[in-house]
Structure formats: C-alpha cells, structure tokens
Amino acid sequence: KQEVTQIPAALSVPEGENLVLNCSFTDSAIYNLQWFRQDPGKGLTSLLLIQSSQREQTSGRLNASLDKSSGRSTLYIAASQPGDSATYLCAVETSGSRLTFGEGTQLTVNP
Amino acid sequence: GAVVSQHPSWVICKSGTSVKIECRSLDFQATTMFWYRQFPKQSLMLMATSNEGSKATYEQGVEKDKFLINHASLTLSTLTVTSAHPEDSSFYICSARLLNEKLFFGSGTQLSVL
Hints:
The structure holds 2 protein chains of 2 kinds. In chain A, strands 2, 4, 5, 9, 10 and 11 form a 6-stranded mixed sheet that branches. In chain A, strands 1-3-8-7-6 form a 5-stranded antiparallel sheet, with no helix packed on it. Chain A is built from no helices and 11 strands. The model of chain A has no long low-confidence stretch (mean pLDDT about 95). By secondary structure, chain A is mainly beta. In chain A, about 0% of the residues lie in helices and about 60% in strands. By secondary structure, chain B is mainly β. Chain B contains no helices and 11 strands. In chain B, strand 4 (about 30-40) and strand 5 form a beta hairpin. The interface between A and B is medium-sized, with 23 and 22 residues.
C-alpha cells in the first residue's frame, strides 16, 4: 500500500526566505508526482506535475524535484511571500489514476 | 485552462436528510471523475472513481449505498450522501482528468450535518 509522508507538518518563515518542503513515498512504482496548494476551506490548485521519467519541473519561483528510486520529492520555494501561505500537498499517482496524498505542510510566510 | 466546477461550496443539513453534490467539467469531457473526502487536519482520501455510463468503483471501507455516485454525462458527476449523520461532516472534493494531463480539482464542498 502506497504511503506518502510530508515533512515538516508546519513551517513558519519570514518573508523573502527560500524554503524546501519534503515528500516521501513508499512505493516507487508511480506514474507521476504532483504538488498542490490548498487554501483554507478551498479546493486544490495544481502547482507542478513531474512525470516518473523526469527529475524536476520549474514554474516561476517554484521548483520540484523527483528521485523516484529513493522515493523522495522536494518543493523549493524561492523568495517566499505572504501570499504563499497555504497548505502544500504532495500526491503520487499510481495505476488507475489513483492519487495518494500526503497530509500536507502548512506554510506561513510572515511579512 | 481546464475548469472543474463543484456545487454547492458549503451545505448544512439535519441528520437523516440526503445531500447532493455536483461536479462539472466546464470546458472538457471527463469520462472519469474522482471523489475525495478530507477530514480536518487530515489529507484527502479517495472515496470512489466515477465512470461515465457505468457504476462507480468504491474504495475499501466506503459504503456505496450511503455515498451514491452518478456519472450520467461526460461533464457531470454527482455524489449523494444519503441519510447523513454528524460523522459524515467533512470536506468533499471532486477531480477530473483532461486527456493525459494532470488532474483538475473542484473547489470542494464543506458538509456540516447537525
């Protein structure tokens, strides 16, 4: 059974700091890994998707890496802003379009 | 980009009543949609996979008679929570896939059962 773990559970940083969120998964037989952002009481916004054959994806200030063999991914956020405050979820996709989510990292960026 | 619309965004109901949640793909056809549930401070858990024109596939531990799923068209899937009880209070969210691209999620429905 696939299990996804995210560390840390919560993170508070001052504005402008670079930060890294970690995600690990137990079964390396994945199709892809996706990072999402969730604001309180809201749905999910897809940030980055990394196919199993890829090692990283970048979008603006965000960079996600994937090491499938070791079952790890990181989300790097550069020059953090208060608007980045949200819960960040990592999810891996396996057969049948099944997504297994981590419990998320709650990020607070203080002005 | 692709949009998935979910309605209502929140609902409060009395115990024993049924609640219907709609999930629509607005600008694409989705043969498969997914329903998730999220309890406070926990992650999303897949409840069922909704297939257009056929029965939904439920995850282990999810009661199919309690959580009725109908996928009558390529753009609409509905989840009905029947005879809702306080323990069904949760955040329900749907998703749909555009071809082989990433999944798009609705904005979610917060259900509170009194």
